[in-house]
Amino acid sequence: MPVPRPRRIDSIPSASGGIARLVCERLREHAIPLAPLLSKAGLNVEQIDNSSVRVEARSQIRILDLAADALLDDLLGFHLALDYDLREVGLLYYVLASSDFMNDALQKAARYGRINNEGVLLKFHANKDLALKFEYTGVDRRMDSHHIEFWLASFVRLCRQLTNRRLIPSRIRVVHHRKKTPAEFRSLFGCDIEFGAATDELVFPGAVALMPIVGADSYLNRILIRYCEEALAHRTPTRTSLRASVENAMAPLLPHGKANAVEIARRIGMSRRTLARKLSSEDLTFSAIAEELKGDLAKHYLTASDLPISQIAWLLGYSEVSAFTHAFKRWTGMTPRQSRALGHRAALRSAAKIRNRGRSPSGR
Predict the structure, then answer these.
(1) CATH 1.10.10.60 residue ranges for the chain
(2) CA 310 → CA 92, 145, 158, 190, distances in Å?
(3) Residues 129, 205: contact at Cβ < 8 Å?
(4) Coil, strand or helix: which one is 14?
C-alpha cells in the first residue's frame, strides 16, 4: 500500500474557529467533557480556550459531527446559528455592516470570507437573482451537514440584520441529503430546501440587491477594507487537494449515473488524461477513489434512520438494492441492514457513556 505523502501545513485550510468554540460552549452547558471529543477531531481544550488560535477547517467540521452525536441533536449546526451574536464573526461582519447596499455586502462576503474560513470558498453572482455559492476547498464536503447548515442559517440571519427586513430566500440548495425540509428550517428560511442538489447555494430575489444597509458608513468601510486586503495579502494561498476536489465533484453526481472520469475531469477544469496522470502521481486512481467514496457515503447514509436502504442504493448510483448490498458486503463483511442496526446500538452506547462521564466528579 503506498505511503501517503506528508501534507505541508500551509496546504491545510484553516478557520478562525468560531463555530468550534460555539460547539464547545454547548457541550459545556450539557456537562459533556470536551477533551475526548476534541481529541477525536484533532483538537484540544487549549486551542478552543484561546480565541486567537485558528483551527483546521476539517477539524471544525468533525467536532460538529461528534458533538451532534453526543447531544443527540441532528440539527446541531442549524441550532447553533440561531442565537449567537453575529458580531462574533469579527472583522468580516463589520465590513458587511458598513457597506452601502446588499449587493456590495455580498460581493465583499465572497471576497473576504476566506479570512474567516479557508475551507469554504464563497462565490457571488448577480443577475436576475443574487446567488451566493458555498464551495468546499481542500476539505471533504461529502460527510458534512451541520457545518453548511450553520453557514446558511447565519447568512440568512445576517442579511436580515443588515437590512432590518425579514428577507426570504427564493431558493436554497444543498448537496447533503435529508428526507424532507425540517419544520424549523421552513420557519426560519421561509422556504423549502432542495436536498441532494449539485451545489450548496443561497439565492435571494434580484430586488434585494439595492436594499440599503441600515448601518452603512462608507468612511469606516474603506478603512476596514484596507485591513481585509492586508489580511489577504499576508495569507498563504491554500493548495487544493486533488482527491478532495474529485470527491466533492463526484458525490452529487452518483445518483444520476454521471460520476464518470470524463465528467469529473471537466468539472474540475482538466482533461481525463490530465486527471489520470495527476492522480497517478499521488498513487491514486479514479476507480479506487470512487469505490472508497461510495463505501464511506454508504456508512454515513446508514446513520440516518429516515433514509431507506433503497434510497441509499440510488444515492450511490446503484439501480438495484441487491447490487448495493453485494458491494457493501464486499466493503464491510456485513449487509447494510446489519451495519445500520450495529451502528445504532453503538451510537446509543457512546452517547450514554459520554453523558455519564460528564455527570461523574472526574468528568467535571
Answers:
(1) 242-333
(2) 44, 21, 39, 31
(3) yes
(4) strand
Among all chains, which residue has been given the C-alpha cell 447596499? 101
Q: Name the residue type at position 111.
A: R
Distance of CA 314 to the CA centre of its chain: 23
How does DSSP classify residue 210? G
Quick one: pLDDT at residue 233?
82
Cell of 221: 468601510
Phi, psi of 228 (to 5 degrees): -65, -40
What CATH superfamily is the domain 242-333?
Homeodomain-like (1.10.10.60)
Alpha carbon separation from 4 to 137, 281, 282, 284 (Å, rounded)? 20, 11, 8, 10
* Amino acid occupying residue 193: I
Going from the C-alpha of 69 to that of each of 11, 87, 353, the distances in angstroms are 29, 28, 12
Of 61, 53, 58, 56, the closest CA to residue 23 belongs to: 61
As beta bridge partners, residue 200 has 134
**Alpha helix positions (H), the chain:** 18-29, 34-40, 45-49, 57-71, 76-81, 91-97, 102-116, 146-163, 183-189, 218-233, 242-250, 261-267, 272-281, 286-302, 309-315, 321-332, 336-359
Instruction: Average pLDDT across each block of 10 residues of the chain; the chain has 364 residues. List them in order.
Output: 40 85 96 95 95 92 94 96 94 95 96 90 93 90 90 97 97 91 95 91 96 95 93 69 86 88 91 93 91 89 82 90 93 91 68 57 42
